[in-house]
Amino acid sequence: MRYWQQNKRLINGLKAGGKLKIVIAVIIFSAIILFHELGHFLLAKKNHVVVKEFSLGMGPRLLSTVRGETRYSLKLLPIGGSCMMLGEDEDGDGPGSFNAASPWARIAIIAAGPVFNFIMAFLLAVIIVGCVGYVPAEVMEVEENSPAQEAGLREGDIIKEFDGYHVDIGNDIYAYTIFNELKQKPTTIVFERDGQEHTVTYTPDVLTRYLLGFNRVNADSMEVGSMIEGMPLESSGIQVGDVITKINGTSVTESGAYDDYIEKNPLGDEPVTLTYERNGKSYETTVTPKQYDTVKMGFNYNLGCVKTSGLNVLKYSALEVKYWIRTTVHSIGMLIQGQFGIKDLTGPVGVVDVIGDTYEQTQSEGTLMVWMNMLNLAILLSANLGVMNLLPFPALDGGRLVFLLFEVIFRRPVNRQVEGMIHFAGLMLLMLLMVVVMYNDVMRIF
């Protein structure tokens, strides 16, 4: 297991317990927020805007000190931070106030927060790539007699483009398969071999299977860990946490026995009887497997790290950050299009749970891999925060930038009171969304 495997964990949102994850999460969140606010702070100072308070956290102050014109504070709740500038969201343009600065200076101050998040993500990526390397989009194996092999794809080829989706690293191919359902249609792949680019087009094969529609807690257990939406087991009466003990009367108390049974008796469109246990009691249910078609790419690609050095460390660090930014943008796009719902969003509670899972699953691999996974998480969160803050929504940095660009284009500011009310309304909506997401996180865990 390597640091890149965190990509899959983050998307699938695996869960785990433990108090240490809270401490680690607080440290990661605090560092990311502090760096974000530091961007606002430094650009405000650069443009001679008075910063009244620079704080980490929200709520009552725990520690506070005044240096010059600025109060530096540590507050009770480690879930935010602020850089409060003189005259921000207020009328008036006295000396040192935010509104007294030129529109372009204010744009630089507001944009600095998200930009610093991207800078932080890049610096962390440099550490990861420098220590463990990057993930080349290399073809590791081509399925024999597959359309991909017949089209000319070979082991060692470096994928540059997959069906119109630009590929920089192996993770890009994985992201494409997450955000785009593979279909049995002509697929074009651009790849590099011996320094030259080639293009092939082929129609992938389809693997047809009949499935019950559940995932086990782990490979050694028959406990139901999750249900696959829209599949038969979801409406059978079996619940997450139940343990399947028999299939058609054959004992499958061990996962190996279940796998052997399925291999010898492949599921079809005929009903099967499942026996399961819940709270020490045994139950039976009849389920009709459902046909499930899987499009096969016809090749396996690399997801392991390759060491690199010199300027390549900077190059692939930038590409790593680009990957996370693009993944975040695609996720937002799918949310807007209705392909994702609010129930799919994860807030601080869910992220803490993922951090705990990541920490516990990588402990056995040594300190280096634990650190790499934690830094990879921080890259994701920092890039995510940068993108989210640039959204043109009131109260976010992107929303403020919209009003400033309006001022630049029309050479007059929007009424400060109107702008303030719009930002306040946006803040209330964001707080409501946070409560809903937090509730969903808690429900998913318990």
UniProtKB/TrEMBL annotation:
Offer a single GO CC term for the protein: membrane
Instruction: Provide this UniProt record's keywords sorted from A to Z.
Output: Hydrolase, Membrane, Metal-binding, Metalloprotease, Protease, Transmembrane, Transmembrane helix, Zinc
List the membrane topology term(s).
Multi-pass membrane protein
Q: Where in the cell is it found?
A: Membrane
The keyword Metal-binding appears for this protein: yes
The protein's superkingdom reads Bacteria
Domain called PDZ: residue spans? 188-280
Task: Offer one Pfam family short name for this entry.
Answer: Peptidase_M50
Stretches that traverse the bilayer: 20-43, 107-135, 368-387, 422-439
Extract one GO molecular function annotation from the record. metalloendopeptidase activity
The similarity annotation says: Belongs to the peptidase M50B family.
Protein's name according to its UniProt entry: Zinc metalloprotease
Q: Which organism is it from?
A: Blautia hydrogenotrophica (strain DSM 10507 / JCM 14656 / S5a33) (Ruminococcus hydrogenotrophicus)
